[in-house]
Amino acid sequence: MSMTVLFIILYTSILVSAENCSPRRFGEDSNVCVCNATYCDFVTVQIPQDGQFRVYESSISGQRLETKLYDFDKIIKNNIKLYLNFEKKYQTIHGFGGAFTDSTGININTLSDSTKEQLLQSYFGESGSKYNLGRVPIGGTDFSIRPYSLDDTPDDVSLRDFSLAKEDTDYKIPYMKRALKINKELKFLSASWSAPPWMKTNHNYTGFLGFLKKEYYQIYADYLVKFLEDYKNQGLPIWAISTGNEPADVFALNSVHFNDMGWTPATVTKWVVNNLGPTLLNSTSNETIILALDDQRFDLPWYLHAMHNYDNRIDKYISGIAVHWYMDKYFPIELYDRTHTAFPNKFIIMTEACTGSTFWELKKVRLGFWKRGERYIMSIIDDLNHWVTGWVDWNLALDKKGGPNWAKNYVDSAIIVNSETDEFYKQPMYYAIAHFSKFISRGSVRVDLTHHRSIKSVAFITPENTTVIVLYNKNDKPKNVTIVDPNKGNINVMVSKKTIQTIIYRQ
Ligand SMILES: *[C@@H]1O[C@H](CO)[C@@H](O)[C@H](O)[C@H]1NC(C)=O
Ligand SMILES: *[C@@H]1O[C@H](CO)[C@@H](O)[C@H](O)[C@H]1NC(C)=O
Ligand SMILES: *[C@@H]1O[C@H](CO)[C@@H](O)[C@H](O)[C@H]1NC(C)=O
Ligand SMILES: *[C@@H]1O[C@H](CO)[C@@H](O)[C@H](O)[C@H]1NC(C)=O
Ligand SMILES: *[C@@H]1O[C@H](CO)[C@@H](O)[C@H](O)[C@H]1NC(C)=O
Ligand SMILES: *[C@@H]1O[C@H](CO)[C@@H](O)[C@H](O)[C@H]1NC(C)=O
Q1: pLDDT surpasses 50 at 15
Q2: Is the dihedral of CA 503, 500, 446, 240 positive or negative?
């Protein structure tokens, strides 16, 4: 039986069994939802008739995308008032997603075929999170079971031995293909963590101050374009490539124990202008765009200024700026506003986030811990209110330990796989992202919604002509809120403690 036929049969049986969250508690402040070969929770968004709005709600108390229908009110009932202004528009959204790391594929591989399909439908399906972005590492990362590159033959300057690894064919490509079948809107972003060690100053995948040797600038560009072409030949065109994952890590004495390669604003600009940019444009992957940075917020906006100051021609090659969320709380969100003001034509996209990554979080995986979902919700709302056009989670699926990871850099994930029981657990982080990704389709535009200190909020109009508003109450008491829509009337809602609501209605 072909895989496609098998998948169709499996999916038909899933549709029939679409149900609510099957909750399980693991001693944390909230629950996970358990999925197995025959059972998983799925929700299809229903857009109500004119004059009504629908609320989808998840909370620390255990609700997961539960929905209710309401009528618009003539009166404003509550003290917390938020005003919509559709005339004032902001950024256009690219989407939401997660990363197809080797570890993700290794974990999914341990599940039965029908449980695998439940997991992929949970992320990419119409009644799942509708993820439309997937990040794909070029070669290995720490979330691999060995360090490797796509050409580990020393001094292979002709790239004769370049080839995709067994990790590509066993752990990434099959799931990317299936995900793309499930959601045709899916676009892939790629990044390389390190060049092959023989191209580097420190002859290592990792380590302090490891840079690309100048004599290999062109060969490394050719190496990356070969990756793009090989994936394209697999039917997996790559939408965007970044200049490299976290180039600043090599300057941190304590944090470079996994795949990494350093760039400065000057060296990366020189390489893109002379090598990567022209090579890409002259290749069959010439539609792939280049993203700058792929690193923490603290690099903005000075890194972009420094790149432009070094060589203005960089402007032609860079389409967007990729940022990561680590250490966000130490650096103000206004850095994104300043970046947008200085570079209004470069979109900002958040390409990596996870919880459990700091050394003081001793328990890497915390099944059902609402606080970690809350951190995602707060970050997504803040980012979207400050010009960010997309939000991409790190590993799509990890094991109960938060791995595998060859460098023992274990972290948490929105879905945790239990290979012994053929189950997976959808964490609060999964629902945190779904409250945005299911509703805010690509091409949605953020519109103005006034803020109030008691509630987090953000609003969009979608290409389907719906209004989508996301509210989060992080307080320990319920908050009653009125949203005033100048065309439709008033939305009076009660947002319980530690509750996220997505409100949707026709324009
Ligand atoms: C799958 O989950 C459902 C719902 O929780 C449960 O009734 C069923 O027994 C589970 N199947 C297996 C094989 O564990
Ligand atoms: C690479 O660096 C790591 C430390 O980050 C070290 O343990 C290892 O021995 C190095 N390998 C080589 C080939 O130098
Ligand atoms: C463009 O690619 C062609 C064939 O791949 C090659 O012959 C040519 O030298 C390239 N031009 C530049 C400017 O890199
Ligand atoms: C991109 O490459 C295709 C062939 O693969 C070519 O037809 C097209 O003109 C190229 N576009 C640009 C902007 O160079
Ligand atoms: C959305 O509304 C605009 C303007 O009223 C209209 O042109 C467009 O066709 C509508 N789109 C959909 C998907 O209904
Ligand atoms: C909030 O609204 C609910 C009804 O939706 C009401 O029962 C409750 O008393 C209100 N709370 C406050 C503090 O106004």
Answers
A1: no
A2: negative
503 backbone dihedrals φ, ψ, rounded to 5°:
-110, 130
Expressed in angstroms and rounded, the spacing between residue 72 Cα and the centre of ligand 2 is 63
pLDDT at 14: 45
Measured distance between the N- and C-terminal CA atoms of the chain, rounded to whole angstroms: 46
- Which of 306, 298, 289 is closest to 346 using CA atoms? 289
Contacts of residue 398, Cβ cutoff 8 Å, sequence gap at least 6: 103, 104, 107, 143, 365, 410, 411, 412, 413, 415, 416, 417
Ligand 4 binding pocket mutation candidate from 286, 287, 319 (most atoms within 8 A of CB): 286
Is residue 255 lining ligand 2, measured as CB closer than 6 Å?
no
Residues 6+ apart with CB under 8 A from 8: none
d(CA 9, CA 2): 11
**pTM exceeding 0.90:** yes
Q: How far is the CA of 162 from the centre of ligand 3 (A)?
A: 19
The whole-angstrom separation of Cα 444 and Cα 92 is 6
Active site residue 352: yes
